[in-house]
Design brief:
Low-confidence stretches: 20-24, 148-167
Strand order of the largest sheet: 2-3-5
Structural class: alpha+beta
Radius of gyration: 24 Å
Distance between the termini: 89 Å
Shape: elongated
Length: 167
Amino acid sequence: MKSFAILIFVLVFALITAGQGLAAEKKLAPQESCPVMDFKINKEVFVDYEGKRVYFCTPKCIKKFNADPEGYLKKMEEEGFTPVETPNSQTKCPVLGGDINKEVFIDYEGKRIYFCCPGCDKKFKADPDEYLKKLEEEGVDLENTPGMEHNIRQGSEKKKHEQQHQH
């Protein structure tokens, strides 16, 4: 009888523990709304935070998010949403394999491709499919070409950029 009571206790404990585990593992849906303003997200406006990509409706929301990221992430979870994993962004030049220079790039078919140095962009243009295939095989998720509001450069930085990309 004593062993039967112990068996019942163990079974009840196991069921309670399993139930708590299932409750804690509720499925969260992919993010659909801005955690700051609750409007529909714009996939061009995001911040990567601790391995997660959080999308926003407008760039103005990023500053508010950065002031309390944990609070906004908790709010998202309470609403049943989760940010996606940060994609494998481009860090190497597809032509020479060196570290990318964010000032040396071309926008090709809606994607921004970075290079290590001027000159690699010309090699890319000669056979873009070859280099795009290489990036794809490496699992690189290319950035989308930013909208015009994100493309504006100021002063000498703009001139330097234009000089690097004259054809």
